[in-house]
Amino acid sequence: MGFVSEVKVSVLSEWDEVAVAQLARLLPQVSASAPALTSVRVGEVVLSPATHVVVARLDGAIVAMALLLVGTTFSGDFGFVEEMAVG
After folding, report:
1. What pTM, to 2 d.p., does this model score?
2. pLDDT tens per residue across span 18-51
3. Where are the alpha helices (DSSP H) in the chain?
4. Which residues of 36-50 are buried (b: 16+ CB within 10 A; e: fewer)?
5. Alpha-carbon distance 41 to 50, whole Å?
6. What CATH number belongs to 7-86?
7. Is residue 53 exposed (0-12), middle (13-18) or buried (19+ Cβ within 10 Å)?
8. CA–CA separation, 20 vs 6, rounded Å?
9. Domain boundaries defined on the chain
């Protein structure tokens, strides 16, 4: 039986150019017309209190992502899953 790598899922809180490149590779799955992803844009999204970038890593590399958008209304809190992609 061969070795199976473990997928680790977490909320992205730090990023570097490698993470930006890995996210950029996934972006065409959710938008064919999105502008090129930059570190500045990743920072804007990650630092937004209404957005949580959930990533799955395999052997340290980001292989999937989903954005959890959180909102608050008079009746309570809610969330939407957006921009989900698996590479």
Report:
1. 0.87
2. 999 999 999 999 999 999 999 999 999 999 999 9
3. 17-26, 39-47
4. ebeeeebeebbeeee
5. 15
6. 3.40.630.30
7. buried
8. 22
9. 7-86
